[in-house]
Amino acid sequence: MSAVSPPTHLLGAAPPAVTRLGLGLAALGRPGYINLGHGDDVGTDKDVDAMRRRAWEVLDAAWGAGVRYLDAARSYGEAEDFLGGWLRERGHGAAVGSKWGYTYTAGWHTDAEQHEVKDHSPATLKRQWPETLAALGRRPDVYLIHSATLETGVLEDGRVLARLAALAGEGVRVGLSTSGPAQADTLWRALEVQVDGVNPLSVVQATWNLLEPSAEGALGEAHAAGWGVVVKEGVANGRLTSRSYPPPALAGICADVGATPDAVALAAVLAQPWADVVLSGATTTGQLHSNLRAGTLHLTPEHLDTLRGLAQAPGVYWRERSALPWT
C-alpha cells in the first residue's frame, strides 16, 4: 500500500520516532463511546467483525496519510486486538502506545451500566501486560498508567513503580495518562517519582484542548525535562467539531482559514511547543481526513490569543464531559 513518507521526530528526548499527528483507537475498538454522534458513526452493524473492518479502514487511511503513532488501551474493547492484527497483516512498523489500569466490562453493549473498571493495583499490571503483548503480537513502544490520579495512589505504589522501572530498563517508554480537573497536580507528582534514584516515567498523555488547557504548565515542564508529551481529546469528544454548535470565536477563525472546527481545534494543539504527538480520535475515514487537515493550517498569534478565550474552568469542563452519553 502506497503512503507518504512522513517527517518523524523523537518522542521527547528518546525513541520511538513519531509523527506530530497520531491516531487513538478509543472510539474504534468498542461499539460504545462518549464522542458526540459515535452511535451514528458506527451505525447498526456493531458486531466484532464489522468493528474490526471499520478500524482497519481508518488505520489504512491513517497510514496512507503518514500517521505513524497509534494509541490503544486494554479498556478500549478489542482495540489492541484490532491493531495487532492490522500490524501483522500489513507488515507496518508504526510506533505503538498502550495503557493498563482499566478493564473493559461492557460486554459489547452500548447500554451497559458500567463500561470499564479502574484498578491501578500491581495485580492488574501483572495481568494486563501479557494480555497487551498477546493482543498486539509485540511489545508496545510506550506503556502508560491509564488515567493516573493522586487518589488511586499508583504513583506511591512501590511494586507498580518497580515493575514499570523494569520495563523501562528493557527499552519500553513508560509513563502515565491523565484525566480530570487535577491533571496538572498528578503530572507534577509524576515528575518527582524515583526508583533507585531514577525516574522511570518519561511519557505523559494528557487532555489539552481549547476548552481545557489547565495542564499546560505541567506539560511544558515535562517536555523541558525530556518527557514525551502526547495530547488526547483535542476536539473535546466532539464538542469542538461541527457536531456541536461552535463558539463564535472558533467559527470566525474557521471562516478565516477555510477549515472545519475540528481541524482548527487540533491545529491549536499542534501550535503548542511542548506537544510531541496530537491524537485524532476519528471513528470514520471522513473524520480522520478532516482532523488531519490540522497539519496544514497556520494559526496566527492573534488567532491563538482569541481561541484562549474559550477555556472553561476545569471543574466545569470535566463535569460536562462526565455527563456525555455512551452511544
What's the layout of helices and strands?
Blueprint: E1 9-11, E2 14-18, E3 21-24, H1 38-42, H2 48-64, E4 69-71, H3 79-90, E5 95-100, E6 102-104, E7 116-118, H4 122-136, E8 142-148, H5 158-169, E9 173-178, H6 183-190, E10 201-207, H7 216-224, E11 228-232, H8 248-257, H9 261-270, E12 277-280, H10 285-292, H11 301-308, H12 314-322
Parallel strand pairs: 3-4, 3-12, 4-5, 5-8, 8-9, 9-10, 10-11, 11-12
Antiparallel strand pairs: 1-2, 6-7
Using brief descriptors, characterize the structure shown:
single chain, alpha/beta, TIM Barrel
> CA-to-CA gap between the ends?
33 Å
Order of helices and strands: EEEHHEHEEEHEHEHEHEHHEHHH
Determine Rg (CA atoms, Å): 18 Å
Q: What is the CATH top level name?
A: Alpha Beta
- The CATH architecture term is Alpha-Beta Barrel
Structural class: alpha/beta
Tally of DSSP β-strands: 12
Helix-residue proportion = 25-40%
Number of domains: 1
Overall mean pLDDT score?
97
Q: What proportion of the residues form beta strands (DSSP E)?
A: 15-25%
The CATH superfamily is identified as NADP-dependent oxidoreductase domain
What topology, given as strand order, has the largest sheet?
Answer: 3-4-5-8-9-10-11-12
Largest sheet: 8 strands, parallel, barrel
Counting DSSP H or I runs of 4 or more residues, the number of helices is: 12
Protein name: Oxidoreductase
Pfam families: Aldo_ket_red (PF00248)
InterPro entries: AKR2_Oxidoreductase (IPR053135), NAD(P)_OxRdtase_dom_sf (IPR036812), NADP_OxRdtase_dom (IPR023210)
Organism: Deinococcus aetherius
